[in-house]
C-alpha cells in the first residue's frame, strides 16, 4: 500500500511541477479543472446517455403538465407521482457511475489535502511536535535531536493519559530538516519543512496499517512493533483569500471542478 501511494504521489508531483514557483492556488485550480474534465468523461462513458435524456425529457413534460392542469388536483397528484417515479429511475441510472467516480476522487482529495491542507513553517515560526506511543503502561524515555536551523524551545511535556510527549520547536531558516527521536536506543526521524509552501509533505508518520498508509503518503512508515505510534508536526492550516473571502482549499476545489464539468457538458454533449 505504501509503495502504491508513493508511486501515485510521484505522479501527482509531476503534474504540480510547473506550478511550484507560483502561488499554490494555481496548482489547486489546475487540478480542479483537470478533475472536472476527467469526471465529465467518466460520467459520459459510464452512463446510458439515451436513457438519461429520455428520463429528463419525461420529467420536463410532467412539469409542463402540472402547469397546464394546475386547477385539477387529481391530475396534479398523479403527475407528481410520475415525477417521483422518473426521479427514482434517474437515481438508479446514476448510481453505478457515481460509485465509479468516487474512486479517483478519493485518491485526488487525499493527495490534495497533503499539498493544500497545511503550509510549511516560515522562518521564526513555531510549531508543536507530538510523539504518541503505542501500547499501555508508563511512557518510554524519549529525547529529541534538532539539526542546525531548528531550535527546541521547551522541555518535553509528558501527557501520560494520552500516551504523548510534546515539544515546541522554532524554525530559524528555510529548508528541509530531519528531526530525530531516540527511544530505548532506537532512532526515528521526521521531516520538517520550512519556507516552501508548494511542497507536498506528510504530516503524520504512522505505523504500517492500511488506513494510515492511505491517508499518510509521502514518508516511510514506522516499523511494525515500534514503540512510537505516530509523530506529528502541527503545521499551520493553509487558507486561501480572495478580496474579503477566506476559505479552505476543498471549497475552491468543489466549486471550480463542478463549474468546469457543468460548463463543458454542452461542448462534449453530456447529459
Written overview of the protein:
The chain folds into 2 domains: about 1-115 and about 245-265, no CATH class; about 125-235. The longest helix has about 45 residues, at about 75-115. Helices cover about 45% and strands about 20% of the residues. The strands form 3 sheets. Strands 1, 3, 4, 5, 8 and 9 form a 6-stranded antiparallel beta sheet that branches. A 3-stranded antiparallel beta sheet has the order 2-6-7, with no helix packed on it. It has a two-stranded antiparallel ribbon with strand order 10-11. It is an alpha+beta fold and about 270 residues long. It starts with a helix and ends in a 7-residue tail after the last helix. The radius of gyration is 26 Å and the shape is elongated. It contains 6 helices and 11 strands.
Key words describing this protein structure:
about 270 residues, alpha+beta, 6-stranded antiparallel beta sheet, about 20% strand
Helix content: 40-55%
Structural class: alpha+beta
Overall shape: it is elongated
Question: Distance between the terminal alpha carbons, to the nearest Å?
Answer: 36 Å
Radius of gyration: 26 Å
